[in-house]
Amino acid sequence: MKKIITSFAATLALCVSAISWAEVAVIVHPSAGFDSLTEDDVSRIFLGKSKSFPGGAQAVPVNQNEGSAARDKFNESVCKKNASQYKAYWSQLVFTGKGTPPKDAGDDGAVKALVAANPNMIGYVDSSAVDASVKVVFKVP
């Protein structure tokens, strides 16, 4: 029994460390007129404080589904909020009529497909999912 618990703990530790090493890439349509954004630019868009990209084009943020590793890492690193703080932040803005949260678009593939099909969208995916259909403008280490 002790051996089973020890191996379970070791496996869990490896899984958790693999998740924490994953790099999240913030992506936009390849035709976007800019090559990079700052962490502050990205945070402001996803927290509803800015509705446009540099240059004035409309920015429409899309989230991954709640509970995804990429979403949790993105929210904590870029928005500086854990999952419950992020949800509470948007609940308050919605309740007061001051904002609408980004739509939940699904997993890496779904977010990448939406962003690749719409020049106004911005999303994030695990960096291993990035291909030529999107442009990386910021990386969350």
Summarize the structure.
By secondary structure, this protein is of the alpha/beta class.
Task: Please provide a written account of the structure.
With 141 residues, the protein is of the alpha/beta class. The protein has a single domain, classed as 3-Layer(aba) Sandwich (D-Maltodextrin-Binding Protein, domain 2). 44% of the residues lie in helices and 16% in strands. It contains five helices and five strands. Strands 3-2-4-1-5 form a five-stranded mixed beta sheet, with helices on both faces. About 6% of the residues have low confidence.
**What is the H level of CATH, i.e. the homologous superfamily?**
Periplasmic binding protein-like II
Query: The CATH topology, please?
Result: D-Maltodextrin-Binding Protein, domain 2
Q: Supply the number of helical segments.
A: 5
The assembly state of the depicted protein chains is single chain
Element pattern in H and E? HEHEHHEHEE
Which CATH class applies here? Alpha Beta
Assign the structural class, choosing from mainly alpha, mainly beta, alpha/beta, alpha+beta, or little secondary structure. Answer: alpha/beta
Q: Give the termini separation.
A: 38 Å
Low-confidence stretches: 12-20
- Taken from the alpha-carbon principal axes, the silhouette is globular
Strand content: 15-25%
Q: What is the count of β-strands?
A: 5
| CATH architecture grouping | 3-Layer(aba) Sandwich
Blueprint of the fold:
Blueprint: H1 2-21, E1 24-28, H2 39-46, E2 60-63, H3 69-79, H4 83-95, E3 103-104, H5 108-117, E4 121-126, E5 135-140
Parallel strand pairs: 2-3, 2-4
Antiparallel strand pairs: 1-4, 1-5
